[in-house]
Specification:
The chain has a domain at 4-44: Erythroid Transcription Factor GATA-1, Chain A, CATH 3.30.50. A hairpin with a 6-residue loop joins strand 1 and strand 2. It is elongated. The longest helix has 12 residues, at 28-39. It starts with a strand and ends in a 23-residue tail after the last helix. It has a two-stranded antiparallel sheet. Helices cover 19% and strands 10% of the residues. It is of the alpha+beta class.
Amino acid sequence: MPAVVKCPTCGTDVAWVPDNKFRPFCSERCKQIDLGAWASEKYVIGGKPGETSADQPEDEDD
């Protein structure tokens, strides 16, 4: 039995199978809604403006 996840956009149950080309979304429509939200900056990844991973010191394992 395949795993079932909730569509991040509408909450519909979605089977996690290779045949579902939109996973984790239930449809092309939900996939495009999510993409539009990222494009309009509704979603953001935390951090300070202009900060890059090179600005942060690396942990040394010596």
